[in-house]
Amino acid sequence: MVLASHFSLFAADVDITAYGATGNGTTLNTEAIQKAIDACYKSGGGKVVVPSGVFLTGTIALNDNITLHLNRGAVLLGSTDINDYKNLDPFVEGLGISVGWALVVAVDKKNISIEGEGIIDGQGSKLKAQQILTDTRAESQRWGRRPFLLRVVRCQNVSVRGVTLNYSAAWTSHYFQCKQVNIQNVKIESRGVAHNDGMDIDGCQDVTIKNCDVVSGDDALCFKTTSSKMACRNIVISDLRLKSGQGAIKMGTESMAPFENISISKCYIYDTANGGIKLLSVDGANIRNVEIDDITMVEVKTPILIRLGARLSVFRKDQDSQRPIGTLENVTIKNVKAKAADNAQLMPPSGILITGIPGHNIKGLTLKNIEINLAGGGTEENARQIVPEAIDKYPEVKTFGPLVPAYGVWARHVEGLKLDNVKFTLSHNDLRPAFICEDGKNIELKSCIIPETTGARTVIRLENVAGAYINNTSVAASADAFVRVEGNASSDIRILKNKTPDIQKKVELSADVKADAAVLD
Predict the structure, then answer these.
(1) CA–CA dist 422, 470 (Å, integer)
(2) What are phi and psi of 64, to 5 degrees?
(3) pTM of this prediction?
(4) Residues 6 or more apart whose Cβ sits within 8 Å of residue 211
(5) 332-368 as b/e, with b when 16 or more CB fall inside 10 Å?
(6) Which residues in 203-258 belong to E strands, given as ranges?
């Protein structure tokens, strides 16, 4: 892959101070920095150097074969005047707000690089404070006018290495329909205003992200497809540290084109307020061939949410049209250890929420070698909580509140769900089942470990499940029954070689279930 930094071998470095830039933190340098970039491009490309100093600027646009190099001690400081920013590629985000202004931007370019030990700082809180003096709209409307820190749109051969991205006024870094993207050793700290996503990978292909540290007010690592025309495909992510005021690893909500062939591994997630791993297709996307492996979570509210829905939003209405309901299939999440936060979005907390919608099942989902520590505290009444379908709603954990009736895994509208060596521990007794499946086909639980609880009606509840295999599961709990089967569509339930020493009744059938629906060991 040919990257922009390679072009510096064939062209002289261009120092922005040679074009009048002043690093005193107060002089607006937009014009001077842009002149340096344009001159470098006209000479054949190369390296535009930001030396040590604080260089105040509005929107600057990169061009083909340009490396923006920030020396140690260099700061590109975003102006707090919202009128100093341009929107070179407008679009509408998932909440329906027009967005796209940016501090550093490249649109339809090749061989773009941002590198060095310097900082790009958007002064998000100060910019917002200035904006609201004259913009009297509700915050939910006016935030979209604030600039992203970095936008890279329809570019090829993109490298972002070593730099620090701080305090954006909106999304921190947005890569849209780019190919051959390499992001390494980037630090992001972006908090203080709403919608401070860390990295947004939007309809990009052939992407590598490694060794990055993200602290964000909103989603930390977020895959989107705001257009139906280009999938997120062939993406490898590893060795990230993620802290988020929302979700740490997320696909969606904007989800029109596919997410496929994506590998995420060796990530540490901590102090995250709204989901550790969230896979969400609600606008027609096909999510498939995704593997998430070797994830540690500490103090994360609701470790896993997987949702197939039918919001069916359109984000570029002049270029796109509504898509049919998507799919979610062939996803594996494995080798996860999580300490769930005691205070969660749904109370009492639950570990894993999985739900499609009627007629559209999540298919081929495997959860393997998962260990989650939870607070517990669920009551017998909680165990019968009805969860809303919310078919066309914004897909969020709280959408399914106020709670779900299983403390471990609650699954609905699923086919081919496999739980292999899934273990839960509880800090307090919980009278909800460890696992509930509603409207399922071909469900498999094997080698799972269920903690000690007392007084529950059942450990596992299957409602209208056609085909289930429960094998080699160890249960320390005492309960009225190990498995309770409900619903006249339930059939072919096989319960074999499980260890349930404190449970006398292995299976209990509700009155509407056929007597031969379940087979015991």
Answers:
(1) 12
(2) -55, 140
(3) 0.95
(4) 184, 185, 238, 239, 240
(5) bbbbbbbbbbbebbbebbbbbbbbbbeebbbbbbbbb
(6) 205-216, 221-225, 232-244, 249-255
Q: What share of the chain is helix, strand, coil (3-state, %, to 5)?
A: 10, 50, 40
Q: Does the pLDDT of residue 161 top 70, yes or no? A: yes
64's enclosing H/E stretch is none
Tokens read off for 160: 């972002």
What residues form DSSP beta bridges with 410?
A: 353, 436
Per residue in 113-134, pLDDT (tens digit) is 999 999 999 999 999 999 999 9
- How many Å apart are CA 23 and CA 366, to the nearest integer? 53
Cα separation, 290 vs 279, whole angstroms: 10
First to last CA, the chain: 57
Q: How far apart are CA 13 and CA 37, in angstroms?
A: 11
Task: Say how far apart CA 223 and CA 216 lie, in whole Å.
Answer: 15
Whole-angstrom distance, CA of residue 369 vs CA of residue 469: 18
pLDDT tens track for 271-329? 999 999 999 999 999 999 999 999 999 999 999 999 999 999 999 888 999 999 999 99
Please state the separation of Cα 514 from the chain's center in Å.
42
Q: What is the distance of C-alpha 506 from the center of its chain? A: 39
The single-letter code of the amino acid at 166 is: N
Take residue 136 and report the two structure tokens written for it.
């009297």
Which residues is 165 bridged to in the sheet? Answer: 120, 188
Q: From CA 101, how far away is CA 84, in angstroms rounded?
A: 10
Place of tokens 């260890």: 499
Q: How far is CA 505 from each of CA 287, 361, 510, rounded to the nearest angstrom?
A: 40, 31, 13
Cβ–Cβ contacts within 10 Å for residue 93, how many?
24
Closest by Cα among 142, 125, 127, 141 to 192: 125
